[in-house]
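Repro:
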Amino acid sequence: MVQLAFTHRILAGAKRMGLHTAIETSGYLGDRADDRFLSCLDLVLLDIKSGDPETYRIATGRELDPTLRFAQRLASIGKPVWVRFTLVPGLTDDPANIDKVARFVAPMKNVEWVEVQPFHQLGGFKWKAMHLEYKHADTPVPDLALVNRVVAQFQAAGCHAR
């Protein structure tokens, strides 16, 4: 959504060709997307990294409210959404945090799935290549029991989760 006019042209062209369209976004810039832009989308993959504003700020460096506003807007127009929740041990795995996301998402009829995405270390090399500090170098990958607990927590709240 940083290059909204360009992205709109690509999505509109894809729709004219009969192609399914989707974007992946944090929703942080969702206020920039007008109805014309949203009409070109078949699906939004929306990352909601946390339900707790402070945890969200730590995880993303941004405020949570723009993401939640965008999610509510998508719900109000019935735009299909897959919410993506990144499970980071020691950061986003607190049951109270997950509960906040689950309770926010569960009533939204447009949310088809909540995808629990286990944290991994596959991109760690990029930080080193850019000579940047990688703050998650020592963060463990969540084990299967933790992943299953989080998926079950979303399901117990009424979300379709996987």
